[in-house]
Amino acid sequence: MHGLHLIADLQDCRGDTPLDDADALRALCLDAIARAGLRAVGSLFHPFVGDDGQPQGVTGVVLLVESHLAVHTWPELRGVTADVYVCNLGADNSARAEAVMDRLVAAFAPSEPKIQRVLRG
């Protein structure tokens, strides 16, 4: 159960990835996971819609063989929270977790990313 858990608060996001588009966010997350050499087992991305029918934020989760990735977006605040946890059973996957988070931070382009690193286990 050893592993690295990255927890990010990304504010003032100015990247090209739309924060209200579940399909775009899913594609970004799955691409980041694949590029890092991690293995997705399933995903669910839920878009929120306002009373006026306009898209709002998205909550998304990707289940990994190695654990999970979760993102939550607030387009009206230009904010994103992200959570990447990878287990290190048999191999140290910490660099892969960092690569996923680096890709997300680059895509969202926050003015000042705040990332916590928690060693688990």
Features:
alpha+beta, single chain, 43% strand, 121 residues, EC 4.1.1.50, polyamine biosynthesis, six-stranded antiparallel sheet, 6 strands, 2 helices, S-adenosylmethionine decarboxylase
What does the secondary structure layout of this molecule look like, with pairings?
Blueprint: E1 3-10, H1 22-36, E2 40-49, E3 55-64, E4 67-74, E5 79-87, H2 94-108, E6 114-120
Antiparallel strand pairs: 1-5, 1-6, 2-3, 3-4, 4-5
InterPro entries: AdoMetDC_C (IPR042286), AdoMetDC_fam_prok (IPR003826), AdoMetDC_N (IPR042284), S-AdoMet_deCO2ase_core (IPR016067), S-AdoMet_deCOase_pro-enz (IPR017716)
EC number: 4.1.1.50
Protein name: Adenosylmethionine decarboxylase
Describe what this molecule looks like in 3D.
This is Adenosylmethionine decarboxylase. Its EC number is 4.1.1.50. GO terms for molecular function: adenosylmethionine decarboxylase activity. The chain is of the alpha+beta class and 121 residues long. It has a single domain, classed as S-adenosylmethionine decarboxylase, CATH 3.60.90.10. Helix content is 25%, strand content 43%. The chain is built from 2 helices and 6 strands, in the order βαββββαβ. The chain has a 6-stranded antiparallel β-sheet with strand order 2-3-4-5-1-6, covered by helices on one side. A hairpin with a 5-residue loop joins β2 and β3. α1 packs antiparallel against α2. The longest helix is centred in the first third of the chain and has 15 residues. The chain is globular, with a radius of gyration of 14 Å. The chain starts with a strand and ends with a strand. The mean pLDDT is 96.
